[in-house]
Design brief:
Blueprint lengths: L1 E2 L6 E2 L4 E3 L7 E5 H14 L1 H13 L3 H10 L6 H10 L13 E5 L6 E6 H9 L4 H13 L29
Antiparallel strand pairs: 1-2, 3-4, 5-6
Length: about 170
C-alpha cells in the first residue's frame, strides 16, 4: 500500500506503474493520475509533440544525418544530399518509390552514388555491389519467368495472372 503523490489517495501497489529509475521501482503517481497528466500534457504541447514525431518518422535532423554519415565515412554534405533528393524527385533511383530513402554508397571510396529505397539498397548490398552479379541475376530471372520458354516450374507453362510485380524494378 502506498499513497499517490498527485491525488494523495492511498492505493495498492498494483495501481502504480513500474519505473526503473526509482528506488522502489514504482512511479509516484497512480495509474489514473498518470493517465490524466499525460493527456493534459499532450493537449498542452500537441504541436511540438507532433512536430518531433514527424521528424522521427521522416528521418533524421540535418545534424544527426551529418553525424551518422561521418561516422560511417560517407563524404557528403546536407546541401549535396538535398541536391540529390531534388534531382531524383525524392524517389528511389531504381524503383521510383518515395519510401524510406537511403544513401547508396561505394563503401571502398565512401562516395555517394545516389538515393535508393531500403529494399533496393539492401538488394545491391546483398549482391556485394557487383554489377556483374546483378546482370547475372537479371538474366536468371528473365530465363525463369513464368510462361516463358525454359520454364519447367508449371505444368503447361501457364502464367499466373495474380502475380504482384509492383515491387519489381525495370529490366536492366
Amino acid at each position: 500500500m502506498r499513497t499517490c503523490t498527485k491525488c494523495g489517495v492511498p492505493k495498492p501497489d498494483s495501481e502504480f506503474s513500474k519505473d526503473r529509475a526509482r528506488r522502489d521501482g514504482l512511479h509516484p503517481w497512480c495509474n489514473e493520475c498518470k493517465r490524466v497528466g499525460q493527456r493534459s500534457n499532450y493537449t498542452r504541447n500537441r504541436k511540438s509533440i507532433l512536430a518531433k514525431h514527424k521528424l522521427r518518422v521522416r528521418g533524421y535532423t540535418n545534424s544527426a544525418r551529418l553525424r551518422t554519415w561521418s561516422k560511417y565515412g560517407i563524404k557528403i554534405s546536407v546541401k549535396e544530399y538535398d541536391h540529390i533528393l531534388l534531382e531524383q524527385n525524392g524517389k528511389c533511383k531504381i524503383c521510383n518509390k518515395e519510401d524510406d530513402r537511403r544513401l547508396s554508397v561505394d563503401h571502398t571510396t565512401g562516395t555517394v552514388r545516389g538515393l535508393l529505397c531500403r529494399r533496393c539498397n539492401s538488394a545491391i548490398g546483398l549482391f556485394g555491389d557487383s554489377p556483374q552479379l546483378l546482370v547475372e541475376a537479371a538474366k536468371y530471372l528473365e530465363s525463369k519467368a513464368p510462361g516463358m520458354a525454359g520454364d519447367t516450374s508449371r505444368k503447361g507453362g501457364d502464367a499466373v495472372a495474380s502475380v504482384d510485380r509492383a515491387h519489381c524494378s525495370p529490366p536492366i
